[in-house]
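#dry-run=false #mode=assembly
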Amino acid sequence: MASLLRRGLPVVALTRSGEWPPKKIDLNAVGFDGDATSSNPLLTIQACDVKNAESLSTNLSGCRAVVYAASASKKGGNSKEVDGDGVIAAGNACLQQNVGRYVVISSGSTTRPNSLGFKFTEMAVAGIMTQKRRGEVGVRDAYSNQSGSSYTILRPGGLDEPKQNIIQGPSALEITQGDVLAGFVSRADVAEVAVELALSSAPNVKNTACELYYRNKVVPVDKGFKKYLQDGADLDRLYGKSYDELFQGIKPNYDYLVDA
Amino acid sequence: MKSALAYCSYVAAVLLAASKNTAALSISNDRSINRRDALIGGAATILGAPLACGAASTPSKPVAVLGASGKSVRGKSTPSWITSCGTHS
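#status=ok
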């Protein structure tokens, strides 16, 4: 939200309660010190439940892009409802309402059920990685025959807060595709990249998935992927001083690397 | 015999991957699969997309954020072994 408002763009905050911002939020952490109330003409705050297809369709109507940042919670719904069904339902609503771009904030290692990251996270929040992957596949399938609208699945590494709850920007980041490398990244930088992907009309970021993490904290998603950290490995590790530069090498129509 | 078995395994892997709608399977001279990238859809799905449908072409329309009340910048710590779980709805 703050990433969009700071860019001077109209934004719709969709929450279950219809309230925003949350009491404890620190918008200064992402460089926004402007008006975060409904008196800001750029800001619309609406109630929306991702478990309700009608609510999604109504609220997403007229939007240029949608960022899916919801996940399972005690009050909001379990991982099947929010990370699986909700992701797919929002994608379908985007298609129904001709929303140009749909960006899903998923997770690194969703395609690696044997990795420690997948297993631990799956245990920590029951079934969440399985559901996130189901959501990714559902969106991919829903958009498979669409030419006007597109999606990007963003798979962040481990969320590294509060140690680094600031925006470090594109030069600190690395993007890869394949779900073989991961690392850590702050929510603030995830938000920035999600917004930039949502605003992008570059053909190469469409209908694809990519991983995001700080370039100084790169680890293999699974121990079998250490080879991709070596110089000369057959994997494009993307860097850039600007977001355009960072996104330049992203391949469209990509899901994950089927490793030997 | 060992070589024939290996080749059969390789062919099976290629066929299995192809049946799963994966693409870009390349057979190199040493019969290894160089890059087995699971591609989705096809290039045709993004080529020729009218500019009017692109997000950047309609700047006056809003961007919606689902899960906007998440703990994005609240500073709550996520254990380092947990991968990202998005924000909470």
